[in-house]
C-alpha cells in the first residue's frame, strides 16, 4: 500500500496456527451448522451452498515462498529487483499450471521494465468481467510480506481454489498482480491505459486487496462496487463488522480514474486503531494497524495475522465465486442516503443525497419514491430517476402546519429489484420566531457536480489517494501539489434570523509531507463573511475530524463561507473537506 504523505501502522493478536482454515465452510456442511471445531457463527444456507474453502495453510505456504525470494535477493521484492522477478515468475507458473490464460505484460514505465501478471479463467461472458487484484511488489526496506504479500498470496490461492473446483462460469473472471505500486501505482496505470474503451466498459467491478493480515488490523471495505458489496455480505454472515478506511492508496485508484467501479480492501497500514475499533475487533488502541508498515520487520511469519488472512482469503473466494459462477448474475443495485437524518423547523426544508451503485450485472434505471412522510411534509427527488451508479438530491420540505416529532421516511429505489433506505426527520417545536431553519448549504457532500460551490479547478471531484472521500464518491481537495499553490472553495449562504442555533460543521483530513513540529508552512483558512474562524496547517495533520463553529453572530445575513488553502514551495500538504453542513434550528 502506498500512503503518499502519511506514516506507519499496528496489532490484533497474531494467531500462529499455520494449519488453521478460517471463515468459510465446507461445501458439504449442513445449512446453519458450524463446521466441527469452528468458533465462527453459522453461515446462512445460501452461503453454505456457494464457494469452496480457501486453505490458509496454502496461503501461508505462498507467503513463505515470497519470504524466501526476498531473503535470497537482498532482503526485498521491490520492483526492478530479482526478488520481484522471482515473485512474478512464481505467479505465472502456478496460474498456468492451474489452467489460467496468463498474460505477462511488460510495464515499460516501471522500474526495470517489470512485469504485470494478468490471469483469465476460461469461460463466462467477457462483457461482464469481474476483476480482482493485488500488487506483487514491496518496498526496498523489507520483504513486503503483509504489504502486499498477503494480498498477492491470498488471491493466488483463491484463484487456484476456483480452478481446482472448475465451476460453470457465467460471468468472466480476471486477476491482476501489479508491479510498481509502491512507486506510484505505475503497473496498474500501465495496464488500464492499455485497455480500449470497450475493454474498460466490460470490467463491471475491480477490487484490490492490499495488506489483509495486519497484526493490529481491522476490516476495511472501501467502495460501493459489486466486489465491495459481496465482501460486506460475507463479513456480515460471519458477524465481523467492517468499516470504510480513510487511508490511501492503492491500485483501485488507477481503475477508478478510468471510470471502472472499484474498491480497496485492507486491514490497515500506518494509521492508529481507535478504542471503538478495539471494541469491534480487539487489538491495541493508539497503536498502528501494522507496526511493520514499510519496514524490514514486514516479514513472514512474524508480521502476519493468520485469523485476518484466512477470513479475507475466503471473503475473496465468496465474492469472486458468487459474481462469476452458476446462474447468470441478475442486474441489481443498492441505495443509500447521506446524511440519513435531518432536523427542521416547521416551514423549512432539509436535503440529503441519495446514492445508488450497481452491485451486479449491468447498470439500470432506478426510480425513486418515498413513503412515511407525515401531514405537512413533502419529499421530492431531483432527478426522480437515475442510472444505478448515479445520485439524486432528496428535498424534505415542511409547512408551518407540520407537527413536531420524529418520523421515519422510507426512500425506495425501484428497478429490476426494489431496495430501500431510511431517513429520520425531526420536526422541531414551533416558537422563537425561527422560520427558516434546516440545513442551509447546497450540495453539502459535493456529490452533485459543483453548484452552488465556487472552487478552483480540480478541487471538487471524485478524488482518490490522499484526497479520498470520507463518504460517497466526491469531495473537495485543496492543495497537495508540493509547490507554491493556492486553492479556494466557497459558497454564499443566507442565515435566517430568530433561531437559537447556527452550527457550521465539516470533516477535514490533513495529510502532509512536512516534518516540522513547530512551523506552519501550509495553511487552510476558514472564513465566514470576511471573519476568520480558524487557520489549520500542516501541524494539524490527521484523519478526517469533525470541525464545528457557531455562526450565531451572522444570523439574518447573507454571507460567504470560504476555504483558502495556501501551500509553500515544497513538501506537499493536502486539505480534504467532506460532509459539510450549516444547521439552523
UniProtKB/TrEMBL annotation:
Keywords: Hydrolase, Metal-binding, Signal. It comes from the Bacteria. Residues 1-29 form the signal peptide. Belongs to the peptidase M28 family. M28A subfamily. One of its GO terms (biological process) is proteolysis. SUPFAM superfamilies: Zn-dependent exopeptidases. Transmembrane segments: none annotated. Residues 116-315 form the Peptidase M28 domain. GO terms for molecular function: metal ion binding; metalloexopeptidase activity. InterPro entries: M28_fam, Peptidase_M28. This is Peptidase M28 domain-containing protein. Pfam families: Peptidase_M28.
Amino acid at each position: 500500500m502506498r500512503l503518499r504523505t502519511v506514516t506507519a501502522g499496528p496489532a490484533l493478536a497474531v494467531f500462529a496456527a499455520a494449519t488453521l482454515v478460517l471463515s468459510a465452510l465446507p461445501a458439504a456442511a449442513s445449512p446453519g451448522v458450524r463446521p466441527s471445531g469452528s468458533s465462527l457463527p453459522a453461515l446462512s444456507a445460501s452461503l453454505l451452498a456457494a464457494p469452496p474453502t480457501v486453505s490458509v495453510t496454502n496461503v501461508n505456504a505462498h507467503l513463505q515462498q515470497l519470504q524466501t525470494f526476498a531473503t535470497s535477493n537482498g532482503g526485498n521484492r521491490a520492483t526492478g529487483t530479482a526478488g520481484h522477478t522471482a515473485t512474478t515468475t512464481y505467479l505465472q507458473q502456478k496460474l498456468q499450471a492451474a489452467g489460467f490464460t496468463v498474460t505477462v505484460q511488460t510495464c515499460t514505465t516501471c522500474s526495470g521494465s517489470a512485469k504485470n501478471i494478468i490471469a483469465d479463467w476460461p469461460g463466462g461472458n467477457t462483457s461482464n468481467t469481474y476483476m480482482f487484484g493485488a500488487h506483487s511488489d514491496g518496498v526496498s526496506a523489507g520483504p513486503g510480506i503483509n504489504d502486499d504479500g498477503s494480498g498477492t498470496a491470498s488471491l493466488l490461492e483463491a484463484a487456484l481454489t476456483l480452478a481446482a473446483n472448475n465451476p460453470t462460469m457465467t460471468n468472466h473472471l480476471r486477476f491482476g498482480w501489479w508491479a510498481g505500486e509502491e512507486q506510484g501505482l505505475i503497473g496498474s496505470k500501465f495496464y488500464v491505459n492499455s485497455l480500449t474503451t470497450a475493454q474498460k466498459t466490460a470490467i463491471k467491478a475491480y477490487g484490490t486487496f492490499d495488506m489483509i493480515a495486519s497484526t493490529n488490523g481491522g476490516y476495511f471495505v472501501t467502495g460501493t462496487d459489486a466486489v465491495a458489496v459481496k465482501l460486506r455480505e460475507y463479513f456480515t454472515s460471519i458477524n465481523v463488522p467492517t468499516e470504510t478506511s480513510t487511508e490511501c492508496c492503492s491500485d483501485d485508484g488507477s481503475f477508478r480514474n478510468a471510470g471502472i467501479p472499484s474498491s480497496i480492501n485492507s486491514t490497515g497500514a500506518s494509521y492508529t486503531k481507535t478504542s471503538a475499533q478495539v471494541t469491534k475487533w480487539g487489538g491495541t488502541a493508539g497503536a498502528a494497524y501494522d507496526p511493520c508498515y514499510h519496514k524490514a520487520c514486514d516479514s513472514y511469519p512474524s508480521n502476519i495475522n493468520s485469523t485476518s488472512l484466512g477470513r479475507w482469503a475466503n471473503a475473496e473466494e465468496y465474492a469472486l465465486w458468487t459474481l462469476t459462477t452458476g446462474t447468470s448474475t441478475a442486474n441489481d443495485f443498492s441505495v443509500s442516503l447521506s446524511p440519513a437524518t435531518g432536523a427542521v423547523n416547521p416551514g423549512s426544508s432539509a436535503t440529503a443525497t441519495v446514492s445508488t451503485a450497481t452491485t451486479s450485472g449491468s447498470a439500470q434505471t432506478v426510480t425513486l419514491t418515498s413513503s412515511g412522510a407525515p401531514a405537512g411534509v413533502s419529499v421530492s427527488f431531483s432527478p426522480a430517476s437515475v442510472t444505478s451508479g448515479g445520485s439524486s438530491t432528496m428535498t424534505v420540505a415542511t409547512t408551518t402546519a407540520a407537527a413536531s416529532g420524529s418520523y421515519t421516511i422510507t426512500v425506495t429505489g425501484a428497478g429490476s429489484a426494489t431496495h430501500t433506505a431510511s431517513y429520520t426527520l425531526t420536526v422541531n417545536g414551533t416558537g422563537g420566531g425561527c422560520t427558516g431553519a434546516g440545513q442551509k448549504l447546497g450540495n453539502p457532500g459535493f456529490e452533485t457536480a459543483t453548484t452552488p460551490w465556487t472552487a478552483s479547478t480540480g478541487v471538487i471531484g471524485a478524488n482518490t489517494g490522499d484526497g479520498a472521500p470520507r463518504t460517497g464518491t466526491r469531495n473537495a481537495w485543496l492543495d497537495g501539489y508540493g509547490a507554491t499553490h493556492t486553492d479556494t472553495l466557497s459558497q454564499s449562504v443566507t442565515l435566517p434570523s430568530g433561531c437559537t442555533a447556527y452550527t457550521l460543521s465539516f470533516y477535514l483530513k490533513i495529510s502532509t509531507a512536512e516534518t516540522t513540529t513547530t512551523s506552519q508552512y501550509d495553511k487552510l483558512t476558514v472564513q465566514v463573511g470576511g471573519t476568520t474562524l480558524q487557520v489549520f496547517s500542516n501541524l494539524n495533520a490527521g484523519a478526517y475530524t469533525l470541525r464545528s463553529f457557531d455562526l450565531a453572530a451572522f444570523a439574518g445575513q447573507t454571507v460567504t463561507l470560504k476555504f483558502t488553502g495556501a501551500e509553500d514551495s515544497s513538501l506537499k500538504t493536502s486539505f480534504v473537506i467532506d460532509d459539510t453542513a450549516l444547521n439552523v434550528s
